[in-house]
């Protein structure tokens, strides 16, 4: 027999109440794609790419009005779902806070992507390719001599990047997703200057997000990159495409080739 409206409402209320009384219910799930499990799994994968080594970098996921965040200063590849912080996006209060741990210093930067871009996931990497490309741009070593933006065009992988984190999963001609950049578009990623403390980057990152509505990422000079997407899949594939493009440009630079 189908569940009545009252049954469904009661079940939802019970779930809501159990979250209120038992914060651990927010991170307990057998589903590998539950944010608490997914963040731990992604960090293990990203560690092998050199994106989150030495406690640097991280991943955050928004699930409805809950923001899932890793602890600060821990080995990101060793994290367990029970280590996760959960923040209520509307009140910005923590609804789950593991004792003896601090929330990631990247939290205000992740929140900027959720607030200003309606992102569903934000990835911060300390990839050496990201760092190197900021140094090459700083030295004015590409044709455009633009210090505060990495620009590249006419490389197939650009088609893996959405315009401003929008884009749909529909595939257009040529294997490109609708809403993504095309082969002849120029992809531009702004670069902000690093600060002594991660959270002090927030103002500059918010400004860059506002000034570059088509960008799905912000590079941080001598530090790494923040990449977001409407969901985990888009944030992850964009982080992969960007890292590919950063590495390619660094290698092209070493060969004396121009990429713009
Ligand atoms: C060597 S990591 C320095 C801090 C940092 O840049 C970072 O991305 C990690 O911050 P968290 O607070 O999440 O550990
Ligand atoms: Zn960092």
Describe the structure.
This protein has two domains: about 1-105, L-fuculose-1-phosphate Aldolase; about 120-260, 3-Layer(aba) Sandwich (L-fuculose-1-phosphate Aldolase). The longest helix is centred in the last third of the chain and has 23 residues, at about 230-255. Helix 3 runs parallel beside helix 5 (about 200-210) and helix 4 (about 130-140) packs across helix 6. About 35% of the residues are buried. The chain contains six helices and nine strands. The protein is an alpha+beta fold. Strands 4-3-2-1-5-9-8-7-6 form a nine-stranded mixed β-sheet, with helices on both faces. Helices cover about 35% and strands about 15% of the residues. It binds the ligand CSCCC(=O)C(=O)COP(=O)(O)O and zinc ion. Ligand L4RZE5RM binds near residues 54, 55 and 58. Zinc ion (ZN) binds near residues 57, 124, 126, 198 and 224. Its EC number is 4.2.1.109. One of its GO terms (biological process) is L-methionine salvage from methylthioadenosine. Pfam families: Aldolase_II.
Main features:
single chain; 260 residues; alpha+beta; L-fuculose-1-phosphate Aldolase; nine-stranded mixed beta sheet; 33% helix; disordered N terminus; binds ligand L4RZE5RM; binds zinc ion; metal-binding; EC 4.2.1.109
Q: What's the total number of strands?
A: 9
CATH class of the largest domain: Alpha Beta
Distance, first to last CA: 64 Å
Please state the average pLDDT score: 90
Largest sheet: 9 strands, mixed
Query: Treating each run of at least 4 consecutive H or I residues as one helix, how many helices?
Result: 6
Assigned CATH architecture of the largest domain: 3-Layer(aba) Sandwich
In which range does the helix fraction lie?
A: 25-40%
Q: What class, by secondary structure content?
A: alpha+beta
> What percentage of amino acids are in beta strands?
15-25%
**Bound small-molecule species:** ligand L4RZE5RM, zinc ion
Radius of gyration over C-alpha positions, nearest whole angstrom:
20 Å
The CATH superfamily name of the largest domain is Class II aldolase/adducin N-terminal domain
Order of helices and strands: HHEEEEHEHEEHEEH
Globular, elongated, flat, extended or rod-shaped: what is the shape? globular
Q: How many structural domains does the protein architecture include?
A: 2
GO molecular function, one term: zinc ion binding
Family: Belongs to the aldolase class II family. MtnB subfamily.
Pathway: Amino-acid biosynthesis; L-methionine biosynthesis via salvage pathway; L-methionine from S-methyl-5-thio-alpha-D-ribose 1-phosphate: step 2/6
Keywords: Amino-acid biosynthesis, Cytoplasm, Lyase, Metal-binding, Methionine biosynthesis, Zinc
């Amino acid at each position: 027999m189908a569940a009545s409206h009252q049954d469904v409402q009661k079940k939802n209320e019970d779930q809501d109440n159990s979250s209120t009384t038992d914060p651990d219910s927010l991170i307990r799930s057998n589903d590998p794609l539950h944010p608490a499990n997914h963040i731990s799994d992604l960090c293990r994968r990203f560690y092998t790419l050199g994106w989150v080594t030495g406690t640097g970098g991280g991943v955050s996921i928004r699930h409805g009005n809950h923001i899932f965040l890793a602890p600060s200063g821990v080995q990101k590849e060793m994290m367990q779902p029970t280590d996760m912080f959960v923040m209520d996006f509307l009140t910005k209060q923590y609804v789950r806070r593991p004792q003896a741990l601090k929330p990631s210093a990247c939290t205000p930067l992740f929140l900027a992507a959720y607030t200003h871009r309606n992102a569903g996931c934000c990835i911060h990497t300390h990839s050496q390719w990201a760092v190197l490309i900021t140094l090459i741009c700083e030295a004015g070593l590409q044709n455009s001599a633009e210090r505060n933006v990495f620009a590249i065009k006419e490389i197939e992988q650009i088609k893996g990047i959405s315009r401003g984190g929008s884009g749909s999963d529909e595939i257009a001609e040529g294997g490109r997703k609708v809403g993504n950049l095309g082969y002849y578009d120029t992809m531009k990623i702004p670069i902000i200057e690093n600060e002594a403390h991660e959270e002090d980057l927030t103002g500059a990152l918010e400004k860059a997000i506002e000034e570059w509505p088509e960008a799905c990422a912000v590079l941080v000079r001598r530090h790494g990159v923040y990449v977001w997407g409407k969901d985990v899949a888009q944030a992850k594939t964009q982080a992969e495409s960007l890292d590919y493009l950063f590495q390619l440009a660094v290698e092209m630079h070493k060969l004396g080739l121009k990429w713009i």
